[in-house]
Predict the 3D structure of the following.
Amino acid sequence: MARADRSITILLLSGLFAAVAVFFLTRSWEATAISALAGLFAAALLYDAIERRIALAITRPPPPAAGGASSDELTTLLEALLHPCLIVHRGRVERCNRAALDLLGNHITGQDVRLALRQPAAIDLLAQPGGAREPARIAIAGLGMAEQSWDLDIQPLEGGRNLVLLIDQSGRQATEQMRVDFVANASHELRTPLAGILGFVETLRDPLAGGDQATRERFLAIMEGEAKRMQRLVDDLMSLSRIEADRYRAPDQPVAVAALAEEVVSVFRQSQNAQGRAIVIQIEPDVSTVRGDRAQLSQLLHNLVSNALKYGAPGTEITVAARRIDDGMTELSVTDRGDGIAPQHLPRLTERFYRVDSSRSRAMGGTGLGLAIVKHIVQRHGGTLHLESKVGEGTTVRVALPNFDGR
Ligand code: ADP
């Protein structure tokens, strides 16, 4: 029955009931008619009053949930937070945002916080009567992926409520771990030649070994080699940190690709003559200028040609090529013929100090930082880096850089 029909029925029944009661009591038609009208009127007033109260209760905004914010404002605030977050009241999850539902499950709204979080350290604070009264931060694991770690941040709100924020710390920990590994690796790389130099200094102090001219010359040559190795390492470490410091400053010089290739290759041609390795330059006629930092692009090409010379087979040719490719880019490539690289190593070659064969790299004067430097230079230039290699055939490293004119 519609609401209006129901109201009329109630009014008619009330009037009828009053009329029948008065007729039996008084047996007077006048009194019956008056009481019927009075009954109808009183029921109408009563009904109206009840309806008004119900309507008022429905339309009245809900009381502020916490901190004086309305329910809608609070929902908007919680959803605006990128971290999963919950409001806990009297040991239950009163409300939470979408990120919290995604992390902890759709069932948690209204759930006992002990079941929703299952973190004893946090539960001790949140489930106590009146909630946590002081801000607290607890490191927890076991939420989301197995390797994820979180900071659980608790803030007291008004009315015994607690705001609980879950801040994913996995990325920060991975970065911290990388930094620790890097410092350990760099120290190790420097300590080895340093220990060699100190050992030879000790030996030369000995009048027996140090007094002999030929032995002294031999030891001094080894010491010089080790000192140069340390110097290369320090130079590469400084290059890396300079490139990283510049990473948010986009390079903007026009760099002529053909001239750059000629310049870098001529340095190798002069110094590598003893190896008798031919370096061929193949620049397509439409290649012009890329947008870049000339000194860094020269270092990039130098590192790639140096690797091709180190790891290519003796007597084979090295090719430095450039061509225009799609999307306004020019591709620079360096190809060698040699042992090549097994596929499982390819994704890790740009990691600092990662080498396929450490002793070979060291024997060739490698620092293990050459390709890491290349990667950082490419990233700063907004380019791409691809390594292709076939075991027993050789390697091609391709670097795509944006053309200066953007076309
Ligand atoms: P390194 O100073 O050791 O040469 P890089 O970062 O330049 O360091 O290179 C990392 C490793 O990648 C090298 O140690 C080597 O094992 C491998 N590599 C790089 N370039 C080539 C190449 N052209 N052919 C074969 N292996 C290569």
About this structure: Residues 264 and 270 are 10 Å apart (CA to CA).
